[in-house]
Amino acid sequence: MVSLSRTGKLVSGIMLCLLLTTSLQADESESPPNIVLIISDDQAWTDYGFMGHADIETPNLDKLAAQSLTFTRGYVPTSLCRPSLASIITGLYPIQHHISGNDPAIGGEDRETRIAALNAKIKSLDTLPKLLATKGYVSFQSGKWWEGSFADGGFTHGMTHGDRKRGGRHGDEGLKIGRQGLQPVYDFIEDAGEKPFFVWYAPFLPHTPHNPPKRLLEKYTAEGRPESLAKYYAMCEWFDETCGQLVDHIDSKGLGENTIVIYVTDNGWIQRTQESNVPKDWNKPFAPRSKQSPSEGGVRTPIMVRWPETIEPVMDQETLVSSIDLAPTILQAAGIEVPKAMTGLDLMSVARGEALNREALCGEIFAHDIADIDDPSKSLLYRWCVVGDEKLIKCFDGQTGRNGGIHKHMQGDKSTQLFDLKVDPHETKNLFEERREKAISLESSLTKFFMRLPDPWVDDESKKFTQQDRLRGSITPERAWWDLKHYQLSVQVDPEARTIKGSNIIRFEVLEEGSTMQIDLQEPLEITKVEHESGELSFTRNGNVYLIEIGKPIAKGTSDQIQVFYEGTPVVSKNPPWSGGFSWQKDNKGKHFIATSCQGIGASIWWPCKDHGYDEPDAGMQINVTVPEDLTAVSNGRLTKTDHDVDGKTKTFQWTVTQPINNYGVNVNIGNYVNFKDKYDGEFGTLDLDYWVLAHQRETAEKHFKEAPRTIEAFEHWFGKYPFYEDSYKLVVVPYLGMEHQSSVTYGNGFKNGYRGRDLSATGVGLKFDFIIVHESGHEWFGNNVSMKDTADMWIHESFTNYSENLFVEYHFTKQEAEDYVIGCRRNVRNESPIIGVYGVNNSGSGDMYYKGGNMIHMMRHIVNDDEKWRSILRGLNKAFWHQTVTTQQVEDYLSEQAGFDFSKVFDQYLRGTDIPVLKYSINGKTLKYRLEKAVDGLKIPARAAINGQTISLELSGDAASFEFADEIEMFELDRNFYVETQLEE
Ligand SMILES: [Zn+2]
């Protein structure tokens, strides 16, 4: 065991008084600081010259310590490398990031799956390189790295590939750094050019194999010193040399001043020698009370922060700091907001002379083998905390995996221990009984600490998403290179077996040379074969995503096609249309009545496609549906052919869509349908109206569906031309409520007015029209004509379509009733989460996109305050984005531009936040004083109000304002069309 002593001058963190003129945070104008993170591997906190070791020489780290804000009382929360490194890169405790040990427990057929799932965790977590990238940083990984490839952790550059087939586990190629020089790091810094950079230098040093250079081994070889110890000492100095080379390189390049160099060790190490007093069955090369233990030899490390010219070098021997603090310290120095799951403290505040506000410094240690990768607590062995000079260690009963032997010795009788580190730094004397009251208070601090830690997997919306969500919801490289031209979907439906089988011919044009295509098809359906030209293509499956290898890259500009064959038992929709899949129903005559629906979950729940909103088949789609001969299949577009296979007792219905169509708009309905037709003579010629109902419904439907041309008339007035004259307009009866399937609106509202006979606005107006016919037809303009690129922007579909309901009322009834309706619908608004969802993960926002979104648009009309202009904006929107997929930004910009009013803050308020602004006002004689609360910065609403029955104009904003009226104010009322709450202040 090595000697321990406190050296250097004693400085209290609070007493540091630094004459610093610069702020400790990069301001916007200057380049943020570079970050170099040096991480030692398996080295005790005592084993440095500057920490007072009698024999080990570390001149380079001694120099760094002298130039740094150096904390001699630093800790890592856990004394095992993988979880410790994961904590450094995420700023989270192991119980938060779930990477609690080095490997999943051995055995079991699913171990490879568990390894992959563990490695995938990092992709869902915020990491330093990911967050730094938001400020333009490039980042380089070298040395130890357990979490798959460097890119999986968010590094832009790096050495570790992580491929297990090529020896990937904890660093592979990256482990060459240090032992074989530092050239890759130098090259990266060179290539970074003007960009701020982040270097992860975690060489496998002084970690085993202890194979120091001969010159260093000779230096430390001494009489009476075991060879294993001499080797370890030499390793420490070898590591020190590489640190010196790295820091010198930075300084020699003139980068020192704008580079923060941070030093920490991943965990401790006490070299075991022949002389070590270890239990008989101790089978580790390290001695007890070091690695994997909660003792100081396991969890303590010096921590250094060097930022020349900005922070003063200080040897701080009092302040307790943790590697958990590094991520928030780095982020704040870079001017990046710290995610709320990171609870570490900004160490720069010590440099500012402030005390760190920390009740107890805590850590936790789990078994090397992870029993359950989603529940770290099953492997929890120790928790510990330090308060002042006292340290408490508490044992837990987690599963120990292969390391049961060592933990049996370290845990002993599992009693809780208290040590006084000042007088007993080796933790030899348990003071629990002696200082019982203090011990219990520390124990309670420890329990509270871990109870209060935020769970990033639950608390943060964006963390709920999986790799599958990202593959589904983003424009992946395997999607981006090809542009969809046409689908030819052929599917045979077997109602008795409830199975489907078919193929999709996908025609596309090559935008950028590529050879791997992503095609989506959700489980349990399976792609059985993919054909291209004359041959079959190979493919691999990752959940709901198939990667199809075309072999040699296809050149840019080429038009090409593949045919994807698939089959299986599709998912049954539990609650159509809100949950996707097939509905296998029977009609009142006992005949099959079948329908698909897939909004949200996606079309790939029943057919293989490029399942993302941004790309629609420009030339439309052909849908061939084969069903038993006594049934009829109805799909989108026009019925262009029917084939009867007399022997096979099947009929095939060919439906043709000539216009672009979004995936979720494609549907197949199968039943004992009868058909009747009508025509609508609209502003733009004759539109074919095509109705498909069950035989017994025909008479009712012929009357009730007169609502359809009335709806189209109203919407052509407000929004312009019906977008799909070529493909006709259809209403198709289905065994669920209804859905906006393009040119094939499905209907299940029971031939009644209202929403299933109810009025959503509670004003009576909602019973004046059939909600499903009006709402779902409104989607032909907003949803099918103007379509969202990303599901997060679903408000473009639903807010405008909700708004269209009141325009229908206004067109056929009165303006007054239209207002009653839209305003009455505010009762359904919940304001719990924003309307815009999370981008790139197929996530739609709050259901408030209906009523709140509709009311926002209604208010915008009143801000424009010119009905004809407003109508031309709505019509212009459908023209400007005719048959296009768009983003929220495009729609926002268009509306602001056309209106001549900057709506950006209105959108921020109502789409991106959850507060409805509140107009606080007071009346004093002739004076009205008013201001908005709960408003986003910069929100201005030019509103109207009535004073004593007379209309006045007011600009509402967060600024206090007043209005002088001619007479005493007796009555004040804000125009109800403005979606603002009001509150009289006494
Ligand atoms: Zn809708």
Shape by Cα distribution: globular
Instruction: Classify the oligomer.
Output: single chain
State which percent range the strand residues make up. Answer: 25-35%
Q: State the total count of DSSP E strands.
A: 44
Enumerate the distinct ligands. Answer: zinc ion
Mean pLDDT: 93
Ranges where pLDDT stays below 50 over 5 or more residues in a row are 1-29
By DSSP (H or I, 4+ residues per run), the number of helices equals 25
Full CATH superfamily name of the domain at 13-18 and 30-359: Alkaline Phosphatase, subunit A
Helix-residue proportion: 10-25%
Distance between the termini: 74 Å
Structural class comes to alpha/beta
Radius of gyration, whole Å:
34 Å
What do we call the CATH topology of the domain at 13-18 and 30-359? Alkaline Phosphatase, subunit A
CATH architecture of the domain at 13-18 and 30-359: 3-Layer(aba) Sandwich
Cofactor: Ca(2+)
Keywords: Calcium, Hydrolase, Metal-binding, Signal
InterPro entries: Alkaline_phosphatase_core_sf (IPR017850), Aminopeptidase_N-like_N (IPR045357), Aminopeptidase_N-like_N_sf (IPR042097), Peptidase_M1_dom (IPR014782), Peptidase_M4/M1_CTD_sf (IPR027268), Sulfatase (IPR050738), Sulfatase_N (IPR000917)
Pfam families: Peptidase_M1, Peptidase_M1_N, Sulfatase
Helices and strands, with pairings:
Elements: E1 34-40, H1 59-67, E2 69-75, H2 81-90, H3 94-97, E3 103-104, H4 111-124, H5 128-133, E4 138-143, E5 157-158, H6 183-192, E6 197-202, H7 214-220, H8 227-252, E7 259-265, H9 296-299, E8 300-306, E9 314-316, E10 321-322, H10 326-333, H11 348-351, E11 361-366, E12 369-370, E13 380-387, E14 390-395, H12 404-411, E15 417-420, H13 436-452, H14 456-459, H15 467-473, H16 477-480, E16 482-494, E17 499-510, E18 514-520, E19 526-532, E20 535-536, E21 538-542, E22 545-554, E23 559-568, E24 581-586, E25 592-597, E26 621-628, E27 632-634, E28 638-645, E29 650-657, E30 669-671, E31 673-682, E32 685-694, H17 698-704, H18 707-719, E33 729-733, E34 738-739, E35 745-747, H19 771-778, E36 786-788, H20 795-812, H21 815-824, H22 851-864, H23 867-880, E37 884-886, H24 888-899, H25 904-911, E38 918-924, E39 927-933, E40 941-947, E41 950-956, E42 961-964, E43 972-974, E44 981-984
Parallel strand pairs: 1-6, 1-7, 2-9, 2-10, 3-12, 4-5, 4-6, 16-26, 32-33, 33-35, 36-37, 38-44
Antiparallel strand pairs: 2-8, 7-8, 11-13, 13-14, 14-15, 16-17, 17-23, 18-22, 19-20, 19-23, 21-22, 24-25, 25-30, 26-29, 27-30, 28-29, 31-32, 34-35, 38-39, 39-42, 40-41, 40-43
Helix pairs in contact: 1-8, 7-8, 18-19, 18-20, 19-20, 20-21, 20-22, 22-25, 23-24
The protein binds zinc ion.
Zinc ion binds at residues 740, 775, 779, 798, 801.
